[in-house]
Amino acid sequence: MKLTLDQLDALKELVNVGVGKAAGMLNEMIEFRIQLQVPNINLITLSELQSELGDRLGQEQLASVQLDFSGSFAGTAQLVFPTESAATLVAVLTGEAPGSPDLDALKIGTLTEVGNIVINGVMGSISNILTQPLNYEVPAYIEEDINHLVSNKKPQSNIDILLAQARFNVEELQVQGDIILFFGVGSFETLLTAIENV
Length: 198
Description:
The protein has one domain (5-196): 3-Layer(aba) Sandwich (Chemotaxis protein chec), CATH 3.40.1550. Strands 1, 2, 3, 4, 5, 6, 7 and 8 form an eight-stranded antiparallel β-sheet that branches. Strand 7 (160-170) and strand 8 (173-183) form a beta hairpin. Helix content is 45%, strand content 28%. The protein has helices spanning 5-29, 46-57, 83-94, 105-129, 146-151, 187-196; strands at 34-37, 41-44, 62-71, 75-82, 134-136, 140-144, 160-170, 173-183.
């Protein structure tokens, strides 16, 4: 499916409103000012997702917070970081000195909370602005490589995937991640229809 420029602009605006709210909430939690930006948003295939993430985030383990949603449209939202970036972000948020990229329970809890805030900000904005009710599952933290992340979605090869590059700027620190929205069959068309009716 090809999106028009107007559709892409509308989707980017929805995601930006969501990350703006998320940044506001994160700024209340910590003493640093976090800026969150989404410079790019694209509708892509599973193989394109695998290639894109591999090029930008590397082939190593990725730290991912995943949230399933259902309602007017259904699917899975993920916030994905290279584990080293995740460890750096967590160190800044917790005030600890950056140690090994291995994440213990406290760090995983912190990252899950960040993912939950960002994903809920994005999905909540989409739901509220388009007046489409959504239900959410409990967020889950997962560490996996890109091949595994993509292969988990293989049986549903006809899903629509919206990839939004996310940049977290904390003081002088830049952490890059990605917001990935996997929409179940028919759900993305429902989303586009809702956008057109706003």
